[in-house]
Write a structure and sequence with these properties.
The chain contains 1 helix and 5 strands; from the N terminus they run ββαβββ. By secondary structure, the protein is mainly beta. The protein has a single domain, classed as Beta-grasp domain (Ubiquitin-like (UB roll)). The radius of gyration is 15 Å and the shape is globular.
């Protein structure tokens, strides 16, 4: 509950980001690894670019997604 006694909803804490060119509302406070889980993306099969900089997989758990972030998620495709 907030100071005024009202229940806060997740929507009140939502932020807007852009994922692969499309605006998305996501919960605030997510780090890149949790964002991928929220989006049902297998982290072993992707690379992530945040604001035109490749995010190292080792840094995902320490990189908080901010309102206005521009993310590109690129899937690895195998073939033969």
């Amino acid at each position: 509950m907030s100071m005024n006694g009202s229940m806060e909803t997740a929507q009140e804490h939502a932020i807007e980001i852009v994922v692969n060119g499309a605006p998305r509302q996501v919960p605030g406070g997510l780090f890149l690894d949790k964002l991928l889980a929220h989006l049902n993306v297998d982290p072993s099969r992707v690379a992530v670019e945040r604001n035109r900089v490749i995010a190292r997989k080792a840094d995902w758990a320490a990189t908080e997604v901010q309102a206005g972030d521009q993310l590109e998620i690129v899937w690895f495709v195998g073939g033969g």
